[in-house]
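Operator note (shift B, R.M.): manual run for Ring finger protein 175 requested after the automated queue skipped it. Running by hand, logging everything below so the morning shift can see what happened. Input copied straight from the record, untouched. If output looks odd, do not overwrite the archive copy; leave it for review.
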Amino acid sequence: MAAGTAARKAAPVLEAPPQQEQLSHTKLSAEDTWNLQQERMYKMHRGHDSMHVEMILIFLCVLVIAQIVLVQWRQRHGRSYNIGLQMVSFDLQTQLCIWCCGLLGDHVYNVWIQSVFQNQS
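Run finished. Output pasted below as returned.
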């Protein structure tokens, strides 16, 4: 009985995680070093492909659901749908105008800076 209690009282010893082999990079050829780096990269990014597939599936589901919602909205509440469509159209035109003015302003600024630096030299 004393032996059984002694075995129960002994705490399990945690083992240290296995260490990767320490390879000297000076002994490896360039091709072996490249292969080792590629292997490490593949281990780090394992499962990354499935994440992209999940994102694409979510995107496609959201597109389908949004189309269904828009069609139902147009059929059931035509007047508010038209008002919402006009608001979205106006918003897109405003954003496009701001974007184009920003590009034009950036172009003018770059031409001005270029002329300033050419006149200095």
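Quick read of the result: The radius of gyration is 32 Å. The mean pLDDT is 82.
Leaving this for review. - R.M.
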